[in-house]
Design goal:
The chain has 311 residues and is mostly helical. Helices cover 83% and strands 0% of the residues. The protein has one domain. It starts with a helix and ends with a helix. Pfam families: EamA (PF00892).
């Protein structure tokens, strides 16, 4: 029974990662333009999370200043999703997900700017190796260059969002659903404000048939709202490192599903080599950072004891 209890959170985690990967499949399946798709996705998610909070009697209060900042944070993830869905339209699911896996490394390279720390040597080396992986992919898939650039932009924006969001989770560790609620509202507002002046924006909002509506509903309710709430629950049983390390499998699951569902998603050997290089570096970087944090945590009690001994 104990083994089953331990296995359940891992199975739930991988189900969530599978659902995350399926987001890319839906991005190809749904014909609604990326801006409209993002607005509908985030708007419906906001409604779902708001209903969940109301039914659970959770507080919506966070202060007006924080509300404004959370709305702006949501705008960042909104822009990420517009770029993400655009990349899928420009290239395909496999290329987009391979490029998106660079997000964790982008975050490592951006952290020194946000947290005023030195850039670590292994992060620079890993960054160069990832660039090599990208060149291997782009060199063999010239027709996808536009999609590769857009997907890398989406990955960069996602990394910025993850760093911003980490600060919110430190400030409000028990209010993660509330954070997501306001961020989804912010995504709707910011994406609408940024893209409303562009040609075809209003027409795009009306380009939703029954097939697209069902896809968007699944995307909002299952791929975003359910996974958000369930992921919070899983942190009670799994360490953040375990969760983040396993989430690196999202591009793998997405590429496997894409290849199974769409014959044109079966890429060349060079593509999979480049993708494997990128994924390996991302996983190794996560492992090294975790090892460094564990060693740092072990040193702290020793240093504290030494100070007390000196006193």
């Amino acid at each position: 029974m104990q083994k089953n209890n331990k296995a359940r959170p891992y199975l739930s985690l991988h189900l969530i990662i599978l659902i995350f990967g399926f987001t890319g499949i839906l991005g190809r399946y749904i014909d609604t333009p990326p801006t409209a798709l993002t607005i509908y996705r985030t708007g419906l998610t906001c409604v779902c999370l708001g209903a969940f909070m109301w039914l659970r009697g959770m507080s919506f209060r966070v202060g007006w200043r924080n509300v404004v900042l959370l709305l702006l944070s949501g705008g960042v993830i909104g822009v990420h999703w517009v770029l993400f869905f655009s990349a899928i339209k420009q290239a395909n699911v496999s290329v987009t997900m391979a490029m998106l896996s660079t997000g964790a490394l982008f975050a490592s390279l951006l952290e020194p700017l946000f947290y005023h720390r030195r850039l670590r040597a292994h992060e620079v080396v890993f960054g160069l190796i990832v660039v090599a992986g990208i060149f291997i992919i782009s060199g063999q898939n010239a027709e996808y260059h536009g999609g590769i650039v857009t997907a890398l932009a989406a990955s960069f924006v996602s990394a910025c969002y993850s760093i911003i969001n980490s600060k919110w989770f430190v400030r409000f560790p028990n209010d993660t659903v509330m954070i997501s609620f306001y961020e989804m509202a912010g995504a709707v507002v910011v994406v609408a404000a940024l893209f409303a002046p562009t040609e075809g924006f209003v027409q795009g909002l009306g380009q939703v048939n029954l097939k697209d509506a069902l896809g968007i509903l699944f995307l909002a309710v299952v791929c975003t709202s359910y996974t958000n709430v369930r992921m919070i629950q899983l942190f009670r049983y799994l360490s953040p490192f375990t969760v983040m390390l396993n989430i690196n499998l999202e591009p793998v699951y997405a590429m496997l599903m894409a290849a199974a569902l769409y014959p044109d998603e079966r890429m060349s050997g060079a593509f999979y080599l480049g993708a494997a290089i990128i994924l390996s570096v991302v996983v190794l970087n996560a492992w090294l950072n975790n090892l460094r944090e564990r060693r740092k945590a072990k040193r702290l009690p020793t240093q504290t004891q030494e100070r007390h001994g000196e006193g």
